[in-house]
Amino acid sequence: MIDNRALHQISQRLSLRKPQAESLKRLADVIDLIDPSKDTDVSGALEAVKAAYPDVEDFERDFPSFCFALATGVGKTRLMGAFVSYLFITGRSRNFFVLAPNLTIYEKLLADFQPSSPKYVFKGVEAFAHQPPLIVNAENYEEGRGVRGADLLGREAAIINIFNISKISADTSVPRKGGLPRIKRLQEYIGESYFSYLAGLPDLVLMMDEAHRYRASAGAKAISELKPILGLEVTATPKAVGGSAAPFKNVIYRYDLPEAMEDGYVKEPAVGTRANFDPKSVSEDMLERIKLEDGVHYHEHVKVALQTYAKQHDAPLVHPFMLVVTQDTNHARQVHEFVESDQFFDGRYKGRVIEIHSKLTGEESDENARRLLNIERDGTTDIVIHVNKLKEGWDVSNLFTIVPLRASASDILTEQTLGRGLRLPYGKRTGVEAVDTLTVIAHDRFNALIEMAKSADGLVHKFKEVRIGDGGDVPSSKPVMVEAPSIIQTMIRQAAEPAPTPTSQGGFAEPPAPRFTFDKPEEIALAETALNVVLPSFQTRLASVGDLKTEKVIKDIAADALAAHHASEGLFKTVTLERAEAVVRELCAVFVERTIAIPQLVVTPVDQVSFGFKPFQLEGLDSWSYQPISRELLVQVLRTEKQRLISGEDGGDRPDRMEEYLVARLIDFDEVDYDTHAEMLYDLSGQVVDRLRAYLPNDEDVRNVLQSRGKEMAQAIFAQMTKHRWTTETKYRVTLHAPFATLKPQAFDGSGANPFLDFRKPPERLSDIKRFIFTGFAKGCYPQAKFDSDTERQMAVLLERDVTVELWMKPGPNQFKIYDTEGNAYQPDFVAETNTEKLVLETKRASDVSDREVQMKADAASLWCFIATTYHAEKIGEKPWRYALIPDVAVQPNSTLSGLLANYTRPASLELRGRFELQAEVGTG
To answer: What is the model's pLDDT at position 547?
Structure first.
């Protein structure tokens, strides 16, 4: 019987993605169907599986074996970890054999199955927390690790053997030095070979990574000789290699690349060309040069986008590279020589190119192979030149640009080409287009690629289009990342410079920046140390930002700043303690004056919080009138909506109860626990089924509708469930972690011509507003800002001109976050301080104000303002906080801040406010 508790637990603990969770569910189903063992009737098992999954035509092995065809980048190794977890937890097996097709994948598998790995496949699985699986491999099996581990550990541990196919598949019919492969030779400590020992295990489960590599006669024969009770194959390309390339007949679940793209598990592919360019107007050699140059333009554009994202989000810096696919080894050598020559961007890429193909030998081959393996980490390579396609096992997350030279559109549009760079660098999409995109530079194949992508059997059903060059999406000028320091950091940097003429890069007059009185290099260095090193450590020790003006704090900061360099460099030996205190006194005074003190509050429940959903009757079902879809259209809809969960269109996976179609969808929501809510889920799903049966003529039509429209039905049900959610009443503790924070530099992408604009003037095309960096602010905590809409720019204009406003800022990523009731981080558009209060301001398109997500964020922000006022500001005599949600149509040239606040202030709801007033406790951090 399927263990639903184990399924749900593994899915949650391993954070399985939708296709991984569905694969695990299908494994559990077939295990229940055939009960695999050494005595399994293979032909009878096949008939049972075909009845449930008609797509499975044959096991293609001497034992039951199933292929899970998951697109590159979705997570096949983690899926194997889920398979092991389920089979072990349910007592089906404790002995596993994982097969790798080559040395690269073998080493990756060994690493990912180690608890010390950041990609550890069992992370969070309770069954392996105290006793991780015992790993046996080609280097340690002769020590008796697997056999003795089985004897010593009993049923407390899983044993996972990881081997390269070459270790077991040598053709023993051909005379060879040493006779049999080592794994098949007699091992005295067990009286037989280790291979024979494995073949005799009663519960051995075989897992085949990149399964399309094991259909050759030698590999297939060795696999058969292992006599596993079950085979689990994973691959992105379920076709046998070689001339015939026959499709697998044992695919039980497919999740193809278009679905992975639609669901956001991999990068979005794009095709790039030069703006206003006719490839037929130039020779083939010149076309290759243009494609390489434009590839570099795009590569540099991505590099800056990644630098900016890492800076903004305190994320690891990703080093991108560009892959150039050449026709043959001579072509590769010619391209290599050109891109490292002075004729190519003045030799900028000399020493930053590697060439990979089979004809490289000796030190050059070893060095390039090393750089290829380290390409995600070391940042020394910008361009990789390769002949034809890179093989599986080399899937990296930092490939963003592919330049295929002399390749046909059909060759480009394959998973072998695109699949090498589809992995997301941060594991999920970031919302930054350049970071989430893989772009193919294909001037001469641009139109053909677009048309092929639109075809019914194309790999990618839609391609983004990227135009490179002046007037396009990516300018041909070298992109730059602009670091925007806070106004205080700017003042320190300018302290040693003469007062500048009041003009800016946009050619307009800027307000004069305030200046410090100190200007000696050692005093400036002291101020930098005090601001960047010492002040952050004082944040958690003070009750308010105003404490920075007290003499004791000033003396302590000055002493710590002097001590920071006395021991090592003696940099401040010429600065007396008295002078240091004077510098710090002036710095702290300006810091208090030019910083909006945003308290860092931590709200934690004193008691454990539980939640669930109350039973209820669905509203609006009378208006549901979904109609059956024709059989041909049903297939089209499933592909479009990327829902390949159901084989029902061919008579496959047909639940006995209609309700299970919707229940399976509902438990995909993280908040829904099947064991806790099963009764309610079936009740709600039953209400929908009753509604469908009330107007549809038969159950086949009902089943059709549930299959084709189940996703949107489940979303509608869950939206109503959230309104009937209950949470246990609990007391909360509000802890002040810090009363303020130092303002870190922000980072902007300054690509394109003339990226700086006066904030008072909109760009010529409002759709371009995200490209510009606006300057000229007198009241901003930062002298520069970027805006997502012209409404935000107009809001900045309003704040600058309002006489009551003292300071304002657009928080950067990770500077100020508010969390809603579902744990989602929310970064407000503006924070402002007037002469009487502090404000959190959000501007939204009027049509979006009533959206559920916007309202949740508004509730969270208004509650934060209430807590910050009640449990911090009022207690230390600081200004109160207020939140306003302002529609874009209200931000007009004649609008005033007081008028907007009067109409759009959003107080905390009485329910939440009342609970906190009565039940919160105040802590000190």
So the answer is: 92
